[in-house]
Amino acid sequence: MTGANHWRRLVLWWLGTSIVATLLVVLVLAPIVPPGNGSVEASGQVVDNTVLLGVSTPIAMAVLVYFIYALIVFRERDTSAVLDGPPIRGDARIQTWWLVVTTGLVLFLAGYGTIRMLADGAGGGQGPNPIAKPTGASRALQVQVIAQQWKFTYRWPSYGGVETSTLELPANRMIAFHVTSLDVIHSFWAYQLGVKADANPGFDNIAYVTTKGPLTFDIHCAELCGVWHGYMFEKGRVVGPSQFSTWITQQRVRNAPATKSLPPYSKQYFPDPQRRGG
Amino acid sequence: MSTVAISARRQPTWRKLIGFNLLTGIVLAVVGWLVGSWIGARIHAPSLDYFSDTGENDIGIMLGYLFGVIGFLVGLGFANYPIKRMLGHPASLAEHESEGEGALRYFGLCTDHKVVAIQYIVGIGVFFLVGGINAMLIRTELLQPNVHVFGPNQYVTLVGMHGAMMMGMMTSGILGPFANWLVPLMIGSRRMAFPRIESFTFWLLMAAGVVLVTTIFMGGFQTGWTGYTPLGTQGTAGYDAYIGFFALVGLSMCLLGLNLVVTIITMRAPGMTWNRLPIFVWSVLATAVLMMLAAPMLIAALLMGAFDRTVQTAFYLASAGGSAYLFQNLFWVFGHPEVYIVALPGFGIVLELLPVFCRKPLWGYRLAVAGMLGVALLSFFVWQHHLFVSGINADLRPFYMLSTELISLPTGFIFLCAMGTMWRGRIRYTVPMLFCMGWAFNFLFGGISGVFLSDVPSDVTTHGSFFSMAHFHYTIMGGLVFTLFAAIYYWGPKMTGFNFNERLARIHFWTLFIAFNSTFGPLFALGLMGQPRRVVTYPTNLQALNDWVSVSAFVIGLSMLVFLYNLIWSMVIKREPAEDNPWDSKSAEFQLPTPVPLHDFDRIPVFDSDPYPYGVEPAPVLTPTTQGA
Amino acid sequence: MSGYAKRLTGIVIGAVVVCVLLGLYIGVYLSSQPGSASAAQSPGGVHLYLGTVPASEGTDPHPSWVSYYAVDATSGNWRHDTTFVLPANTVVTVTVYNYDGQSGLRNPFISQSEGTLSGGFTLDGKPTRTVDPDAASHIFAIPQLGVSVPVEGVTDDAKNQCANAPCPLSTAHTTTTFSFRTGKPGLYRWQCFVPCAAGYIQGWGGPMQTVGYMDGFIKVV
Questions:
Q1: What is the pLDDT of chain B when averaged over all its residues?
Q2: What is the mean pLDDT of chain C?
Q3: Residue B422 pLDDT more than 60?
Q4: B245-267, pLDDT tens digit by residue?
Q5: Which residue of C has its CA nearest to B213?
Q6: Between A55 and B18, where is the model more confident?
Q7: What pLDDT shows up at residue B7?
């Protein structure tokens, strides 16, 4: 068989399989790929994953189809003697095209990822001075997430600096999480909201998220923080605005004794002992 | 196994035990440990009050490790040469490569690169076994969603031990055995540039492995293989072992890299131009450069951690003026080149083997070289993709996203060269070829899942989850371990002189390949479904998938037992002699007799082509040069 | 053939040695699990008596570490067990005898009790909801059940302080009592939140990171 025939068959196989596979992946797999539609950012991640899946499936199919084709068609049928193949040492045209195509794909992916990220921060932690602010970020509800071994607590600067041991958020509202830690590195992962931000001691790590309708979401620590890392999980809730204001008012009353002894609200805390305990 | 008869007078057995050997090394290691601990207790107890509070003497432990390792190496005889030369004496013959005979050469300082390679493969194999057992224990614990076999302390220690064993010891998994054995033969040299350093790196690595195992007697360490501080700083004495282990591994890596770089640059035989260098040697060169440049960063980071723990500095303690980010940055400046140190030799092996089994020259030789050097270069510019959600330098995320995705260009070259080499070839399905194809499949999915992790919006969910864990197992286990086995089945008979049982080898491949994908494929799903890494508990609705993964992991364990059985059966018991050139390779090492003679070449060869003259020329003739030895 | 026999013997010996070493290796992980103590069932309800001491008993592997103990109410025996077995869906009354000094909290918020039946606890017989965050010695918290109760420390100038477990009731101590309702059967963790691990960075290594001292399990059956 001539080289051109191999090419034609390969391209046809690739087109056929990758159209089927890409459609399957984009239409069947991508919609169920988490984190789901719990927030604007989570939905954004789903869109992003769909695009990545859609781009990478034909690439994977191209490589797979080639390998399977080569392994079947180019296999040695006559094993009695050792015969050599044609001494082809390269092809400048193919190499150039490969370079052009892969460079294009990489630049597209990096550009697309950058645009998506800069739009609203995609729910990731961005440090104390975020560059990727969603519009209206200045009006976001500030929630401080204080991680310590092995518990998250939440502080509300706009509600008298009250601290709560559970997390409830108002629906359809932009939230600015200020994640910090009192001891080691933790990571605040609100799974269904598509939020993940490392909690570093002495550091204010901001992540934006815009909630949608009411739901219950899982909170995990996503950075190994010691012996109870695996147990550092809890549930949070997104509730209607009126339910939220009832809840936060209750918390302010209930936690009033503790609030009195809290230090003033700050971007970070260095509680004693700062070095070796005793 | 090459032995050489030397006319030495027979010594009584007890006399053989006295001198610089492994036994002396172990004795001096214990002595060194005791001396170090004693000194540590003298310094520590009077000056720092926390000694009595914690009941742990970190300075003593650190000094104990330091003096113990020095004692071990002195006992093996590594100090003899420098001391003698400093005193103006000629070097001792005791470390000459032809000294000693039979199996004893494998238990001490030996400067024969072929012996060091065998030492490496057995020594690393033992720690690979321990690391694998750790993985089995981890998966046993994860059979149920709550703690049921091990406690949380033991579980995190197991996770850390598995990671540290695999990422620390297996870093030299291909370079240790195969680069040491092959590079001199492939470039036409009789030895490495620094034969004593070659042996030194091996024994240092063994000392490191033992240091790591001692952690389980000191409460283990809670940090995983990444050793993040301040969690590490607040940990119990077990973390001292982690620091000692990785610092020794770093030193060993750095020296191994240095030795290989110098060897490849300066020891090439006449005619072995850069254009003719076997592609495996190119991959070794790229890896060795990474090792040499990246490992010092690790040593520095750990040294600062050691100071934080012992003499109360505060490099990593934010509340006392340090920064927890400093360790993360330093660690990943080492850590990301590290993962390519693990992956690159695999690229070299695949591209070295494909021409042999496709009976074609390597397609796109220069592109492959560019790919390897490109990966090596880029790997220094991507480390902050491990810190995308950490909040540090958030403005730089677009850059790190781009640089990370750019790495897929040189990696793509490797794939293109592999595919080009197969084009209209005459592919023979030997066991090493099967493992190469296994690499191609695994690394394809490892690479594509990497695209999701390099993309910030997608990484927000996948970071720190089982998804990233599955990703790096696809690239490291699917990359390093599969190519390691390809190399063992391909060069093993040449190295030992005995053939493997092919039937068992095929069983090994198919069970490993299927069980590997059945283990790590579902882990992508588990990560996306919200299971973070290194957790001892998980939601009950994830149990079915976790159990599936655990059972598949046990099958991986079984397939490794098949390999172990094959290894012992073929190499030690049955001993079917191997041919000189079982694969009809045209590479230099296969033109030598099996087993390879002690001094490799009678005369230094002259090369007149690259090692892939398939389809046209006859095999390259290693013509003796007139320059003599 | 003698070479064959020799090699075979070598293999067998090597295999046995490797298996024994691996067995020991795995054994180390399986050992050193803390024991469990059941709550006392009496007509008055289910009671769990705990003691906290500044340093463990002299025979402990870590005699300088701070620790919780299970105290047998009738015999007064102290047991270094930190897995507490409680019946399901029952009101459990916990009494903590604390002989340790004051350390202070990293997060003062935790000085307020949560999840107890009365909404608070009694400290030396007086009902309250909080302690002074700087006077806290330990916390007994079961995060999965939402229970968290602070334990006030013995003042520095108190007379007749106890140094090591076991501590008799005649030495200086505080008594904290609270009750909570256990949920459905399962394995829950409990831990302390006060940085009480003396000598460790931020008071949070050693006993705070080791199950069997300031951490353990609640086994609800």
A1: 90
A2: 89
A3: yes
A4: 999 999 999 999 999 999 999 99
A5: C25
A6: A55
A7: 46
> Averaged over C108-132, what is the pLDDT?
92
Please state, in angstroms and rounded to a whole number, the distance separating the CA atoms of residues A212 and A228: 32
Averaged pLDDT, A34-39: 89
Give dist(CA A188, CA B461) in Å, integer: 11
Cα(A114)–Cα(A110) distance, integer angstroms: 6
User: What are B532's strand-pairing partners?
Assistant: B465
C83-86 and C215-220 as β-strands: parallel, antiparallel, unpaired? parallel
- Cβ-Cβ contacts under 8 Å for B596 (sequence gap 6 or more): B2, B114, B185, B494, B495, B589
- Helix, coil or strand: residue C10: helix
Locate all alpha helices (DSSP H) within B311-407, ordered by sequence: 324-358, 365-378, 397-406
Which positions 79-138 of C are in contact with A (Cβ < 8 Å)? 103-112, 114, 129-130, 132-133
CA of A144 vs chain C CAs: smallest distance (Å): 13
B234:C22 CB<8 A: no
Chain A CB within 8 Å of residue B19 CB:
no
Shortest CB distance from B451 goes to which of A33, A56, A189? A56
Burial (Cβ within 10 Å: 0-12, 13-18, ≥19) of residue B15: exposed
Classified as helix, coil or strand, B275 is coil
Asked if ipTM goes beyond 0.90, one says yes
Tokens in use for B112? 């024969």
pLDDT 10s digits, B471-501: 999 999 999 999 999 999 999 999 999 999 9
Check A277 against C201: CB less than 8 A apart: yes
- From the list C189, B392, C138, C130, the residue with the least C-alpha distance to A163 is C130
| Closest by Cβ to A85, choosing from B234, B360, B458 | B360
User: Mean pLDDT over residues B603-612, rounded?
Assistant: 88
